[in-house]
From TrEMBL:
The name this protein goes by in its record: 4-hydroxy-tetrahydrodipicolinate reductase
InterPro entries in alphabetical order: DapB_C, DapB_N, DHDPR_bac, Dihydrodipicolinate_Rdtase_pln, NAD(P)-bd_dom_sf
Source organism per UniProt: Papaver nudicaule
Locations listed in the record: Plastid, Chloroplast
UniProt xrefs under SUPFAM superfamilies: NAD(P)-binding Rossmann-fold domains (SSF51735)
Family listed: Belongs to the DapB family.
MF-aspect GO terms: 4-hydroxy-tetrahydrodipicolinate reductase; NADPH binding
EC number: 1.17.1.8
Domain Dihydrodipicolinate reductase N-terminal: 89-212
Enzyme class: oxidoreductase
Amino acid sequence: MGFSVLKAPPTSLLFAGSTNDQQQNRFFSNLRFSQSIGGRLCNLSLIKPSSSTSIASNRKPIATITATQQIEKPIASSMSSVPEKLAFPIMVNGCTGKMGKAIIDAGVSAGLYVLPISFGSESEAGQIVEVGGKEVHVHGPSGRESVLASLFEENPDMIVIDFTVPAAVNANAELYSKVGVPFVMGTTGGDRELLYKTVEDSKVYAVISPQMGKQVVAFIAAMEIMAEQFPGAFSGYSLQVMESHQASKLDTSGTAKDVIKCFQKLGISYELDQIQQIRDPKQQVEMVGVPEEHLLGHAFHMYHLTSPDQTVSFEFQHNVCGRSIYAEGTIDAALFLAKKVRSKADKHIYNMIDVLREGNMR
């Protein structure tokens, strides 16, 4: 079956006094070495203040160690199978894209049945995609309603998963709502206000979330709780934000925007146009530390806070390589929605927070 290397995202909390130049460069000046933790090989990054750092005589330089663990595990067993009674068919629209293919692989690994039909663009119509040991036929825009209605009639317990393109968001949601098929949508963009109105008015089961990574969603939720309970806790602190994504991502990270909103509630003055976006592959490898094999699919975020007198700093970091975290979260969202349908729960729009609160995820 082969093996998949999973890199646990490095996380560090740093307390140090430093100058502005050193704050900006500390993240990039790493001394890496290997160590064994719990019997598994880890990469450790030692981050030290530069020689130009101004340090008061009564303080010593502080070094931060960040661990990144690589775990080898069989691809076939990377996600546990669901009980047979919970298995159901899924239709993955956007299956020609990398995210769609990752979701099909995740669905097959979880024991779900992937329907051999998918919706795509006009240029993709007629294609046959082989993924997860399945052949999926791609239909273009014409005749979608009759195809979907027929498929739903034959598979009344099916769930549609949408990872198409931003331009198709509203039309696809309108189609799913009209036919009445439950769906999970991770596609971003489109008219979001219209999207939610369309689905709410139709009273169809749906999970809609621009972020499907469960752990990332949990981190943002924790930040929101902190912001609500301790408003102004970081008043006066300065903030630096860096985010790195594959070069094809032209817009600013939505996750970074959500986290910044929390910092703003915590008393930090910061504008979104201050975010440092890294899209150049050379910088991503040499400065950010993105593995070359993940240049076409990664999400690295760093948030660095410094006190007004430069004596205290905090650093939050979450790095994602590949798409497995989003694919697994999407399948969990589909399982969550299938349970809601079977239990005849309220028909409304759920999100990944609802999925997390339900617990019992794989």
